[in-house]
């Protein structure tokens, strides 16, 4: 049994820790962000302060291949996520009038859909249940290596590569037989390796060229509007993604070109965002519901409009939440079903 340190308690780090714990290792996960997730799912969404993951409240959908692997190797994780409210969906699922029926073999395109923060919360619970130790508020600052020194000069025959024996952290050194870096795309691993005399890894970095601008909504009864449009609809240079999630929530995500700075700036404003979504045939039903359902289903009291945090939070360049600003809806009904454009929270991020 090895003593293993995993850096980063997000989806990558937690699943790595689960797999290593299942192999019988003693695993400690170090996470820079200090706050544990609240226990209530809605509080996880609204209150979990997680600056280490700017995309925490953006539309996420795990790939179907991930579910296949998770079911084979991490069934307890799948169970926790399902218990937390994640819904099973098939990305090829027929939409009325859009596609034919599913074939039996299409089950391989199933995945689990939930707000990303809930998936991570469930993964945390699964890891803790598997005996993984999660230490929050600890920042990894570098790697430990015998001698602690930098190797200078060109590689020479007989010279051994530095051996990593642990990590340097904000609270002191921590020994480990193995260190796994899961600190995400801003990982400092290349510079940590250079600090102990190892040439940094060869990295390939490419710009994806698109920007997400998403809002989440909540249906009062968990059903989706009858009028529908494809999972990913296209309209000129804009795309619209709609993803079902946990507890009757779903997200609409506008996708635009990253180099269209003017559009990107405009879409951070709720009115412009909604106007753009309405350009997609069938999408308006997803924005608004009958007035009598404009209550928070979970609290039973009217939703109080908030100030527009887009304006309040100008200093956050990549990540904005547009809280519950609501517009009066005049008699628009979606199949007489309970629809509430509740709980809208939006974020923009350059991807
Ligand atoms: C806009 C956007 C949309 C995305 N959509 C999807 C999607 O639909 N489906 C999908 O599967 N994936 C999606 N992803 C990717 C996904 O969000 C994860 O980022 C990715 O899976 C990598 O996860 P991770 O755990 O490796 O890293 P991250 O999620 O980046 O987490 C890294 C963790 O390490 C911690 N950390 C960082 N530095 C240190 C340190 N020095 N010491 C200790 N802790 C540290 C951070 O606080 C954080 O918790 C999307 C990403 C973005 C940006």
UniProtKB/TrEMBL annotation:
It comes from the Bacteria. InterPro entries: FAD/NAD-bd_sf (IPR036188). Residues 149-168, 288-351 are annotated as: Disordered. Keywords: Signal. GO terms for cellular component: cytoplasm. Gene3D superfamilies: FAD/NAD(P)-binding domain. Residues 292-304, 311-331 have a biased composition (Basic residues). Residues 1-21 form the signal peptide. The keyword Signal applies. PANTHER family: SARCOSINE DEHYDROGENASE-RELATED. This is FAD dependent oxidoreductase domain-containing protein.
């Amino acid at each position: 049994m090895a003593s293993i340190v995993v850096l980063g308690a997000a989806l990558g780090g937690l699943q790595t820790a689960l797999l290593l714990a299942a192999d019988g290792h003693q695993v400690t996960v170090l996470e820079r962000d200090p706050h544990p997730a609240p226990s209530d799912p809605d509080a996880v969404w609204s209150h979990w302060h997680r600056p280490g993951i700017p995309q925490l409240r953006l539309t996420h959908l795990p790939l179907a291949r991930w579910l296949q692997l998770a079911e084979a190797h991490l069934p307890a994780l799948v169970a926790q996520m399902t218990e937390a409210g994640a819904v099973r969906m098939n990305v090829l699922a027929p939409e009325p009038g859009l596609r034919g029926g599913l074939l039996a073999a299409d089950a391989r395109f199933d995945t689990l859909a939930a707000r990303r923060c809930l998936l991570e919360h469930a993964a945390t619970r699964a890891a803790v249940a598997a005996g993984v130790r999660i230490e929050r508020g600890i920042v990894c600052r570098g790697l430990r290596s015998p001698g602690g020194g930098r190797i200078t000069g060109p590689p020479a025959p007989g010279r051994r590569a530095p051996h990593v024996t642990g990590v340097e952290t904000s609270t002191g050194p921590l020994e480990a037989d193995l260190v796994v870096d899961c600190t995400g795309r801003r990982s400092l691993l290349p510079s940590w390796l250079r600090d102990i005399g190892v040439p940094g890894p060869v990295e390939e970095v490419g710009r994806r060229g698109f920007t997400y601008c998403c809002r989440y909504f909540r249906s009062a009864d968990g059903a989706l509007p009858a009028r529908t449009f494809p999972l990913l609809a296209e309209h000129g240079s804009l795309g619209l993604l709609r993803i079902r999630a946990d507890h009757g929530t779903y997200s609409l995500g506008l996708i635009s070109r990253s180099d269209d700075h003017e559009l990107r700036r405009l879409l951070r404003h709720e009115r412009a965002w909604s106007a753009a979504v309405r350009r997609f045939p069938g999408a308006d039903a997803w924005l608004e519901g009958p007035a009598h359902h404009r209550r928070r289903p979970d609290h039973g009291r009217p939703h109080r409009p908030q100030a527009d945090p887009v304006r309040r939070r100008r200093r956050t360049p990549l990540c904005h939440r547009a809280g519950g600003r609501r517009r009066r809806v005049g008699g628009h009904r979606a199949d007489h079903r309970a629809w509430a454009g509740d709980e809208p929270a939006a974020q923009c991020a350059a991807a």
